[in-house]
Design brief:
By secondary structure, this protein is mostly helical. It has one domain. Helix content is about 65%, strand content about 5%. It has nine helices and two strands; from the N terminus they run αααααββαααα. It has helices spanning about 5-25, 30-35, 45-50, 60-70, 70-80, 105-120, 125-140, 145-165, 170-185; strands spanning about 90, 95-100. It has a two-stranded antiparallel sheet with strand order 1-2. α6 crosses α8 (about 145-165), α7 runs antiparallel to α8 (about 145-165) and α8 runs antiparallel to α9. The longest helix is centred in the first third of the chain and has 25 residues, at about 5-25. The protein is globular. The chain starts with a helix and ends in a 10-residue tail after the last helix. About 30% of the residues are buried.
């Protein structure tokens, strides 16, 4: 595959992904997070490595890791984007500390996953169910704070549940948008129980 095709192929992939993140974030009331999402992907260290390893079928970061054992684009990206859970993992002495991720970045992270599902699979069917299933399989292995895991589960499960009730993706997003302020109050330590919402 030529450099020209890889350059514009990667650019199209990034813009498609950003469009879907903005779509989901806007419908959940976080348009600004969707707008500024992944701007570091346009930095030279991230963009040109990704062009080099772009295939159009998966993240070039994974291809770079498999090919040369490291992705400098990923190291740069995860250290500058707070919607990645890896940003919130720290080492204190000889122990890892999993910090609680601020609410707005949790919502952006979920939107990022939904958008990646649509961008890389090019399949718009059952996005919520597929991501919830992926999350159930992967959550035990991921280094994410326990309270943050609970919130992610709550958001994804409700998207699936309300899609079934409302008969569509937009209805599910509207319902979850209504619930997010209540969940945020609980997540931030106010005396509201998830089960009462």
């Amino acid at each position: 595959m030529g450099y020209f095709n890889s350059f514009f192929g990667h650019l199209k992939t990034v813009l498609t992904h950003k469009r879907w993140v903005f779509y989901y974030a806007s419908r959940l009331g976080y348009a600004w997070r969707g707008l500024v999402h992944d701007l570091s992907k346009f930095s030279p260290v991230e963009f040109f490595e990704s062009v080099k390893y772009w295939t159009g079928e998966r993240s070039p970061i994974n291809t770079a890791k498999e090919t040369v054992g490291i992705s400098y684009a990923w190291l740069h990206h995860r250290g500058r984007n707070k919607h990645h859970y890896e940003y919130w993992v720290d080492v204190v002495g000889d122990k890892e500390k999993l910090h609680k991720i601020p609410f707005k970045y949790v919502v952006e992270m979920v939107c990022d996953w939904l958008a990646a599902c649509r961008t890389y699979t090019n399949d718009s069917s059952n996005v919520f169910a597929r991501e919830y299933s992926w999350w159930q399989d992967r959550a035990p292995m991921l280094k994410i704070n326990g309270e943050t895991k609970m919130l992610i589960t709550k958001i994804l499960w409700n998207l699936v549940k309300h899609q079934e009730y409302t008969g569509g993706e937009k209805g599910a997003l509207e319902k979850v948008r209504e619930l997010l302020p209540h969940w945020e109050r609980f997540y931030n330590g106010e005396m509201v129980d998830y089960d009462d919402i």
